[in-house]
Amino acid sequence: MRDDNKVMNIVMIILFFVFLGLIIWAQKTVSVRNLMIEIVGLTGLLTLLFLYNKKHK
Q1: Integer CA distances (angstroms), 1 to 5, 6, 46, 52, in order
Q2: pLDDT in tens, 15-33
Q3: How many whole angstroms from its chain centre is CA 24?
Q4: Nearest-CA neighbor of 15 among 54, 50, 57, 55?
Q5: What is the pLDDT of the chain when averaged over all its residues?
Q6: What is the residue range of 41's domain?
Q7: What does the alpha-carbon distance between residue 35 and residue 31 come to, in Å, rounded to a whole number?
Q8: pLDDT computed for residue 1 by the predictor
C-alpha cells in the first residue's frame, strides 16, 4: 500500500511540473493556440489541487 502511495505522489509531482511548464512556455507569445495550451495547463493544475484536497480532507 505504501509503494502505491509513493508512486502516485511521484506521478503527481511530475504532472505538476508538466502543467506548470505548459503555462510558462505558452505565455511567451500571444495567440489563441497558446491560450488553449495555458488553459490545459491551468486545468491540469486545478485537477491536481482537487485530487490533493479530496485525499487530505
Answers
A1: 7, 9, 26, 18
A2: 999 999 999 999 998 999 9
A3: 12
A4: 50
A5: 91
A6: 2-55
A7: 6
A8: 55
How far apart are the C-alpha atoms of 19 and 56, rounded to whole Å? 21
What pLDDT is recorded for position 38? 96
Which set of grid coordinates corresponds to residue 38?
Answer: 495555458
Decide: 19 and 45 in contact? Cβ < 8 Å: yes
Report the helix count and the strand count for the chain, using DSSP H and E.
2, 0
pTM for the full predicted model? 0.84
**Total of domains in the chain:** 1
Helix (H) or strand (E) holding 31: none
Angle 32-55/2-26 helices, nearest 10 degrees? Answer: 150
Angle at 42 between CA 23 and CA 10, to 5 degrees: 85
